[in-house]
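Handout, section 4.2: multi-component inputs.
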Amino acid sequence: MEAVTQQKPKERGRRETSRFWRIFLQQKYLYMMSIPFVIWVFIFSYLPLWGWTMAFQKYRPMPNKSFWERIVDQKWVGFDQFARLFADDQFYLVLRNTLAMSFMGLIAGFTIPIIFAILLNEVRLMAFKRFAQTISYLPHFVSWVVVAGIVTKMLSADHGAVNDFLMWIGIIDQPIQFMAKGSYFWSIVTAADVWKETGWNTIIYLAAIAGISGELYEAARVDGASRLRQIWHITIPGIRSTIIILLIMSIGHLVSIGFEKQMLLSNNLVTDYSQVLDLYALQYGLQMSNFSFGTAINMFNSVVSIILLFTANGIFKRITKESIM
Amino acid sequence: MATKTMRKGAPISDRIFDIFVYGFVLLVTIVTLYPFLNVLALSLNDSTDSVRGGITIFPREFTLQNYSIIFGYEGLIQGFKISILRTIVGTVLGLISASMLAYTLSRPDFQARRFVSVFLALTMYISGGLIPTYLLIKDLNMIGTFAVYVLPGMVSAFNVFIIRSFMDGIPYALQESAKLDGANDFTIYWRVILPMAKPALATIALFLAVGQWNSWFDTWLYNARADHLTTLQFELMKVLQSTTTGNSDYRNSNMTQVMSSISPESVRMAITIVVTVPILFVYPFLQRYFVKGMTLGAVKG
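Output:
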């Protein structure tokens, strides 16, 4: 066998090629069903990747020139855009806001669903459990525009539910201007996020809890373990790997927190606290048509995300011997 | 039944724990539900009466006037039409592309399977970012068109992989017997595989439909100046921004007129309900299929 292939590599190559085309013809329908979408993906997902180079250019749109001329004729400036970025005072303010909101979001958005899932699992009245689940998933399906509207109304100083409630129980006697004070903004964004996503984020934990063997609880009950102890010694260890994977993933997303909620909830009075990296890039990149600078901001964002993801993964690998990569 | 026998011998700490559990879950439920009910009540309450405050979950002076007024605003009607249109078109296109790709990837004998699979998977981890994408859309002359809502995001790797993992579970023997009967690959996909993949398709259809219905950023970014392409979400966003922040960008004579006859708050509440109700309408299905899709994605991905 080996001798044959060594003797006639050329012929073998030709046979392989003809075999490829034979199968290609046989599978023409499969190709017809996939190649158009591959081209699609190339255009809309791969072509924009070239845009990262704008961060190292002084990009000019040149609307009258052809596509290729626009790619070739750009002036390369190395790391100038980044130097400008790091010299910009506003950048540090924006970075502070981004990090503050992402850490708050990470801590609240990570712990509260776990607690809620565990408690939900302890509800023995099935009808009530289902009702609570149905209600708690609901906000996940409405848009951020709707949530921003609801949050603004609930926190309104003008008969908003939160102010009405706080005044009713007598904690305050004047309505608080929640939306008008920058120092509240980070907490409002975090709370809105928790309100919208907590129920939904429990699904994955509830699925993990459902996978724990009932015999473990049975044995613990026979040994007289209280419900709290059962949670501590069975439920939490049972969902440990799920918790770690989700934690690593959310650390990877730490800096890319998006901008929808910040954009929709902010107003002119709180911009010092609401501006985040993505909005900053949007403002420079699109509204001021400074495409290269905007891209440099986005690139900084992505690089920090990747570093965080690998660091988190490395640390957890060492401590817990678990990894997502 | 099991609960009863367990409770009898349960220590007092477990009973306290039970109270805590039910109390906490009830609290979460109320905090989630109350804002929706409050907004609904306000939208159904007389505008001048609402200003006095004190509306909780029931309207005090019931009226449908707020709704009849906002539906007199042309932008909202147009937004409604476009939102429905993009939801239908976007869902159909997304389903066709994802299911076709998923089928070819589920065929173990497909030559280009590995290439297509990796090519798609990479898009879940890398992206060109907002600004290059914007420039591409501009180059393709898609700004100010309906196409921008449905074409750029048509193929989603995540959806393809979810449908594919479902199709992997369909016995291959079915396809082989169809082949013996002389069916080609497209016929097998259309006649054999698609009908069997209905649960996965339903899940993805809902993913796509909710995503389309809830999008507002693409309207803001690409079609903010094209009034005939406005969407319901974008109209709501404009109303919210113009009244809460005093942002004059979104003031619009037609809208201001609408606002002057009833209070801006009533307008906001009524539009919020109009935008949310379609979601509630499909919610029973959403819950059933989404949870399945979510856990499927988590296990496989």
